[in-house]
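Lecture 7 notes: from sequence to structure.

We start with a single chain of 188 residues. Read the sequence below before looking at the structure.
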Amino acid sequence: MLAKGHHFPNVTLVALVNVDNALFSLDFRAEERLAQLYVQVAGRSGRAEKQGEVVLQTHYPDHPLLTTLLEKGYQAFAEETLKLRHNMGLPPFSFQALFKAQCRHSEEAENALSQLASFFYEQKIEDLQVLGPIPAPFSKKAGQYRWQLLLQHASRKQLQAALSRYSPELIKSSQVRLILDVDPLDLS
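Now the structure, written as tokens:
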């Protein structure tokens, strides 16, 4: 509630519980969201004349990004995060497209994305990374099995060239619901 901007003038202590989920998430943006949340709630605790405090619950208090955030501030954290992303070839230094398949039968969703992965491999687009298919982080939701296939390239133009060759007719199953998310903000 604090992060959403509600004003509670008597709040002097805020706890962020189990921040390890963000530090070791499958989503590379989770650490960034944690840092933003920390800055947001730090500004909400201890309003007026009251001193505020933010407590983070973690098993890894010496995590490099966490110590950078707490000791040097958000700017240093952001710079360090950008260096890491650059070294790993992650956005904003690459571009992504995420295919999500949903079906009542897990094998059909996986097979649909396997067909799609084979198609993109056959295109022989230099330096195109085809990652997956893999089960989605929440692999079953509302009776539907969920699978993912991620495409990544350092060039937006090359990624778009690959996507322009794609057609929904490539998937041979009418039972599979396929979603394409270009520049996904969330990999779950």
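The mean pLDDT is 91. Keep this in mind for problem set 3.
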